[in-house]
Design goal:
The protein is an alpha+beta fold and 411 residues long. The protein folds into two domains: 3-233, Cupin (Jelly Rolls, Sandwich), CATH 2.60.120; 325-408, Alpha-Beta Complex (Outer Surface Protein A, domain 3). It is 31% helix and 21% strand. The chain contains eleven helices and 17 strands. The strands form four sheets. It has an eight-stranded antiparallel sheet with strand order 1-9-6-11-5-4-2-3, covered by helices on one side. It has a three-stranded antiparallel sheet with strand order 8-7-10. Helix 1 packs across helix 4 (112-129).
Length: 411
């Protein structure tokens, strides 16, 4: 699409479709989110379970039944498959014709290019409808399955499905119809209700969309397909989501103690009214996770991370020397906030550096955000002041490179 066509499309989409009604578009992208080979290489990283627990969530279904990923580890993609087509051939052989679907959430953690591509896709949407509450993520669906194992179901999520290989077909119903016909919920037999549904179809290069109130089920034709679901959590309140975020940051080992707390049977003892230390510690943790300081950090990461729940991992930190040429981004600038305790929160691409506040840091950030090519030695000589050495500046630039706030220029 030309730029003028894209503007018109997004204007119409925001006005007529976002969180209102489903849509299918057969031709939209001049450049796909990722190629089949990119997807295969990304899935190899996601399905490598040797690194222990990660953000990645993997689900496998065979003939509609969930299978333990650990027990059926051999059914995940392997390097020896060479491609996703090779993976499918192996799995169909091992399963002797049984249908299967592999679902992997948060694959963007292992693919910065996919995340960066999506950031551009989201920009046009966010400018028109705002950021959803709370979080965006990718899920990949691949297999030879005929229908979603859950049947006709509902998630509080607004979804763009981007086919990678094979046609994606999704059938949707409005929530009002489901309310009148509750037998449809989680059903795989819905032929009598087809007239009330909408069948969405798209080949690679297009997309299908449905709002968070739609009930839906995927429909395949028994052929292997690969599709990315760009998923938007759509909650009308944020309390539950902040509680989930709080639980993710909770380290149980720091709050271990006895299973009982002191109790004084004699009610006239004033000491019986003192709040136990264990209760104070628990309340202090909850308070810390709802403080202005914490919320500022969270919001800063959400802004620079385009509202993704999980962003790509940082790069390995590499030394930067004074002869290097570096470049920042004026389009996706490094952002910072002054925090309590003379701290500076610096964020790029959904990551955050917590540093002692110094005017030199802010000066360096301002210069790299111009997007121009900068010679490191000259940059540091111009910005470093008393109390902030050249080595301090090199260390900061190295950290900034690891979260992709800057990159080395080719020169």
């Amino acid at each position: 699409m030309h730029d003028s066509d894209l503007i018109s499309f997004w204007d119409e989409f925001a006005r007529e479709y976002w969180e209102r009604k489903p849509l299918s578009v057969e031709t939209f992208f001049s450049r796909p989110a990722l190629s089949e080979d990119d997807l295969f290489q990304t899935l190899l990283k996601c399905c490598d379970l040797t690194h222990g627990k990660t953000e990645i969530d993997i689900r496998l279904y065979v003939e509609g039944q969930a299978r333990s990923v650990l027990k059926f580890y051999n059914l995940l993609p392997k390097a020896a498959d060479s491609s996703l087509e090779g993976y499918n051939r192996r799995i169909e052989s091992e399963l002797k014709g049984q249908e299967y679907v592999l679902i992997v959430n948060y694959l963007e953690v292992n693919n910065f290019a996919l995340w960066a591509w999506t950031r551009e896709f989201l920009k046009a949407l966010y400018e028109r409808v705002g950021m959803n509450k709370l979080g965006v993520y990718y899920a990949v669906f691949l297999g030879n399955y005929h229908k979603t194992p859950a049947g006709v179901h509902h998630d509080p999520e607004s979804v763009f499905h981007l086919p990678v290989a094979g046609q994606k077909r999704m059938r949707v119903w409005p929530e009002e119809f489901i309310a009148r016909n509750p037998r449809l919920k989680n059903s795989l037999q819905y032929e009598e209700f087809l007239d009330a549904s909408t069948l969405l179809k798209s080949p690679p290069g297009g997309f299908i969309y449905w709002p968070s109130n739609a009930w839906h089920v995927s429909e395949g034709i028994g052929e292997f397909s690969e599709s990315l679901a760009l998923t938007f959590n759509c909650f009308k309140e944020l309390v539950r989501q902040l509680m989930i975020n709080m639980e993710q940051h909770y380290d149980e080992s720091k709050y271990q103690g006895e299973v009982t707390i002191p109790f004084h049977a004699r009610a006239n003892e004033q000491s019986s009214l003192e709040i136990p230390e264990a209760l104070k510690q628990a309340a202090a943790f909850i308070q810390s996770m709802s403080s202005v300081d914490y919320l500022q950090r969270l919001w800063l990461k959400m802004i620079t991370g385009s509202n993704f729940l999980h962003v790509p991992k940082p790069q390995e930190a590499r030394a930067i020397n004074q002869h290097d040429l570096i470049r920042g981004s004026s389009e996706h600038p490094v952002k910072w906030l002054q925090l309590a305790g003379e701290r500076l929160a610096v964020s790029a691409n959904g990551h955050l550096l917590d540093l002692p506040d110094h005017s030199t840091l802010r000066a360096l950030i301002e210069r790299v955000n111009t997007g121009g090519e900068l010679q490191v030695g000259q940059l540091l000589e111009a910005c470093c002041t008393d109390g902030f050495s050249i080595n301090d500046g090199l260390s900061f630039l190295s950290q900034l490179q690891s979260i992709r706030g800057i990159s080395k220029a080719l020169g």
